[in-house]
Amino acid sequence: MRMPELRAGANLDIIPVGRLTTTPYCWAGCAFCRLARPLPKVRMTDAPAGLTLAHLAARGVNLDQTAQIRLRGGLSLREPFDYWIHFLRHLRAQYQGRLIAFSPVEIWQFHVLERRSLRDLLHLLKWAGVDLLGPGGSETWTPELRARWTPHRLEPNEWLSVAEAARQVGLGFSMAPIIGAHMGETEWNEYVAVILQHDPQELEVKPLNSEGTRWAAHDSASILETVAAIQRLREATPSLPLYVCWDEQPLDDAAAIFAAAGADGLLTSVWEVTPA
Amino acid sequence: MSQPLIWMPTLDLRQMPDPLATWTAKRFLQSHAGIGHIVASGQSVIDGPSIEVSDPSPGLHWYCTQARKVPKKLRPLDVSVAVPVPTGALDPILHVLESAKAAGPIRRLVLYRPPQIALSRIVVSINTLLDTITPSIWIDAASFGWNAVSYLIAASDQIQVHGVSDQDLWRLSQIAQWLNRRLVLQDLSPRPPRVLPPPLQWSHAKDPAKVLKTLPVWERSR
Ligand code: SF4
């Protein structure tokens, strides 16, 4: 492995992220996901209540401490789409930073359940002040890996149709490979091909953290795998903004190494609010 | 395949009173197939294949951590130097290296990372030491942190890791697997190393349909 040379002072942006979870339940049960708490045989209408603005107030989080807030969630949502639009609109009124909300996975579910067009849903997100769609659902593109990891989630062509509609309404979308031993040459080639063909607004690199998931018997991704992934993506897409999700403190060494490998920023969580 | 990565379990008995030290050393070696390195304070009763002592003694390897004049009658000694990474041409640590060199050949250089020093500066120092003092360097896992350790091992196969505990062996194993290097259990004695087994490899689903049918009940029930 060729390691990038470190340059003194050449660090990347460390971007503090606030994370909001709409609900910690998700029927999709993806193998690598910590949200994938089962909710067997419960009607959507009986699902536990999702996140409210009162949760944020009760936690006393400091919105200004973050450069971006990300809203993501499981699919066992009781609340309709319009609830979340108003939630986001209120959040936007208090927050100047970047707001990244939902991903094609949730949008597709609302599209199916509420029978509203993708464009309508995405227009509303834009109206609420959302800057970008999150990368959820863009982890894998090969059928073998999907079968193993995310068998119940939306199909790749469905994901891409949400992404394409997001581009059309002027709301960008992002993509994020999960880094780990499952990414072989085939998976990488497929991934890079999708990036080049569909041109997301930005890329995130997510090292697999298998702790607390069904994948826990397997290793989490190492920093060396992460560096190799950054190098590979940088080579394939020299100018696309490339961020690394990294929460392990202290950040300094990781930041210096990722900067040398070609990443533009390091996304690190400063707080997280999840309904009980 | 390049140089193997060495796991050298190390037991530091410098602070431990004697009867307990002997007992601990015995257990330590037993639990590592008789292979392991021990650092003790002085002429001691501890028995082991690979021992260093912090007080220079005739016939024993010296574990040098500070500048010290070794009497002529004891020289030459085989020396291991364990010091923080020097961070400049005037760093007093260079004195320690000089005094160690005067006592005999430096067989092993163990480096600790001083707090608050950027990794890029550490890399410069290590490269200088590799060029001038010794062809291989051991870096201390705890003070370097595993991110820096991973980076340095991947950047140069002249680097080995010191002080990897049993609990952290998996980290070393993960790095070795990624770099396609063998991981061996070895100490400073001339006995041959033992090759440690690599971790399990990830494999894809052979038959995706079968995987779907074997999903947990709560997933099938939707
Ligand atoms: S669909 Fe998203 S939230 Fe649900 S289990 Fe999969 S990754 Fe997790």
Automatic annotation (TrEMBL), chain A:
Gene3D superfamilies: Aldolase class I. It comes from the Bacteria. Keywords: 4Fe-4S, Iron, Iron-sulfur, Metal-binding. The keyword Metal-binding applies. Its cofactor is [4Fe-4S] cluster. One of its GO terms (molecular function) is 7,8-didemethyl-8-hydroxy-5-deazariboflavin synthase activity. This is Radical SAM core domain-containing protein.
Automatic annotation (TrEMBL), chain B:
This is Uncharacterized protein. It comes from Sulfobacillus acidophilus. The lineage of its organism: Bacteria, Bacillati, Bacillota, Clostridia, Eubacteriales.
